[in-house]
Amino acid sequence: MEVNNQAHEYPIQNIEYHHQIQDTPGGKLIIVTYCTVCHTGRVFEPIVNGQLETFLLVGMDHFNTMFEDKTTGSWWRQVNG
Known about the structure:
Shape: globular
Mean pLDDT: 86
Distance between the termini: 18 Å
Radius of gyration: 12 Å
Order of helices and strands: EEHEEEEEEEE
Number of helices: 1
Largest sheet: 3 strands, antiparallel
Strand content: over 45%
Low-confidence stretches: none
Strand order of the largest sheet: 3-4-5
Helix content: under 10%
Structural class: mainly beta
């Protein structure tokens, strides 16, 4: 992952337990996600409707990790946000 010419690496063993890591490469807040079932990694900005959002792991759906946002309780698929 590279943001503003600053590269970061995220070893799978650091992500696979909670399926996510928040980081600020180059000063930009991101959430790095990884699904251990479908082996898919994705990077998102954790901003919903202009507000910083917190995501919690809630389970699986169609062989993909599901997150729930803390504000509305909406479920988000890891593979496509």
